[in-house]
Amino acid sequence: MTDRSLAEWLDLLESRHPSEIELGLHRVNEVWQRLQAAHGLKQHKAPLAITVAGTNGKGSCLACMQALLLEQGYSVGLFTSPHFMRYNERICLNGDPVADSSIVSAFEQIEMQCQGISLTYFEFGTLAALLIFYQTRPDIMLLEVGLGGRLDAINIIDADVAVLTSIALDHQEWLGDTREQIAREKLGIARRDRPLIIGEQDHPSGFKQMVAETGAKALYAGIDFAHTEGDPFTAQLVSTSGLLQIEALQQSSLLAINKTLALQALYAAGLSLDTDLSRDALNRVVLMGRRQRLNYKGLEIILDVAHNPAAARALAEYLHNEEGPFLAVASVLGDKDWSGIVAEMSSVIEHWHIAEISDSSRASKGQYLLELLYNSSHSGDLYESIQQAFLEAVNGATESHKVVVFGSFHTVALVLDLILAEVNSE
Questions:
Q1: Max Cα separation, the chain?
Q2: What's the angle, vertex CA 267, arms to CA 228 and CA 128, rounded to 5?
Q3: Mean pLDDT of 149-165
Q4: Sheet hosting strand 242-249, strand order edge to edge
Q5: pLDDT for 421
Q6: What is the CA radius of gyration of the chain?
Q7: How many whole angstroms separate alpha carbon 269 and alpha carbon 217?
Q8: Cβ distance 333 to 296 under 8 Å?
Q9: Residue 333: strand pairing partners
Q10: Residue 424 has pLDDT above 90, yes or no
Q11: Which position has the higher pLDDT, 42 or 161?
């Protein structure tokens, strides 16, 4: 066995498989079956599993569930993607990223079982998370679907509860060009006779029939459970003992629907939750890169990973309630609807600072980003890097301006890294 560091493993995995994304369960499931046999994982009861799919809101829902569970004393494994600063953020135990050594050990065990099967970077990471969780055996594991649902690597797990947060156009190259096609792919995580918690309330054509075909026990937001409008709000939920309400919940930086989904999913799993502890947990929870606020050189910076028109629309609605004006620092990957994002954000942005994402081969070309802005009659400038775009936005801002960074995890991470590096050097 070679003695590779985590960084060396990640470099190897990024370059090894012929494609970054290859949907399908056969390869990853075969290796997972081998891992379970080699390490006796089927001899013990698996952790209760909750799987979360959706175009937007997955990370927020998962963060809320983790906060709720930890506040109540449960042990929790959490798998999410992508990461901001360190790969370890993708695999957490009881709120903390696992150590390099744990991930390296998992990678080594997976490698021994591949035996000629080629796995993508994401598939290797998914198996590492599952292996770590099955070996450490937390009470509950929370699993984020990476892309779609039906053919995503996470779907090798028969989840006890499935959550579908939202349905919007994104990743059409893999999931289809209509909301109906995308809904069908995402509903692939549902399991017959097990709870399916649905947050999307603008159902695409034929949606309820698609849900019925899964055989899952569906609970619909706005029908079976709900939340009131305003801030604070009340979550109205279905539990094993009947209907219940949790009042005085704050919107904060996370949407009320995602906090309500988290509660409903845990109640559907049959878990016992103390109302006061639940309220405290949800009123404190924050999530990096989701309407995250920082102060930099006396300016308020708002960071949000909105990377499709639906998420951009929600961000714009949020900013409409704020005092501006707003300067944008934005960039997207090549498979994203830049035109749609610009259209949704244009009503709140005074000037755009854009650049090509430097740490992804899938980045949209900077000149394309700029030309679309100009063709849409918006004011913007193109810079050599996200970091330069951000610094120029800050330098050109007045005291009344706020800088909004969005468009991709990569965009937000590059700015976060710059800010934190400067803070740590002081």
A1: 63
A2: 115
A3: 95
A4: 226-227, 233-239, 242-249
A5: 83
A6: 21
A7: 12
A8: no
A9: 363
A10: no
A11: 161
List, in sequence order, the alpha helices (H) in 40-120: 58-71, 100-114
CB 81, CB 105: distance < 8 Å: no
Structural domains of the chain, with CATH: 6-284 (3.40.1190.10), 292-425 (3.90.190.20)
> Residues 373-407: pLDDT tens digits?
999 999 999 999 999 999 999 999 999 999 999 99
CA distance 80 to 243: 31
What is the model's pLDDT at position 19? Answer: 62
Instruction: Place 17 in a pLDDT band, splitting at 50, 70 and 90.
Output: low
Q: Supply φ then ψ for residue 71, to 5 degrees.
A: -65, -30
Which is it for the CA torsion 281, 157, 187, 224, positive or negative? negative
Distances (CA, A) of 296 to 318, 371, 399, 402: 21, 30, 12, 10
For residues 130-135, give the mean pLDDT. Answer: 98
| Element containing residue 53 per DSSP (H, E) | strand 48-53
pLDDT value at 20 more than 90? no
Q: What are the pLDDT digits (tens) for 214-254?
A: 999 999 999 999 999 999 999 999 998 889 999 999 988 89
The C-alpha atoms of residue 109 and residue 112 are separated, in whole angstroms, by 5
Q: What element of type H or E holds 405?
A: strand 402-406
The DSSP code sequence of 131-145 is HHHHHH--SEEEEE-
Taking the C-alpha atoms of residue 21 and residue 35, their distance in angstroms, rounded to an integer, is 22
The dihedral through the CA atoms of 53, 59, 60, 62 has a sign that is: positive
Site of tokens 């050990």: 105
Residue corresponding to tokens 């963060």: 63
Separation of alpha carbons 185 and 145, rounded Å:
11
Cβ atoms within 10 A of the Cβ of 373, count? 24
Is residue 425 over pLDDT 60?
no
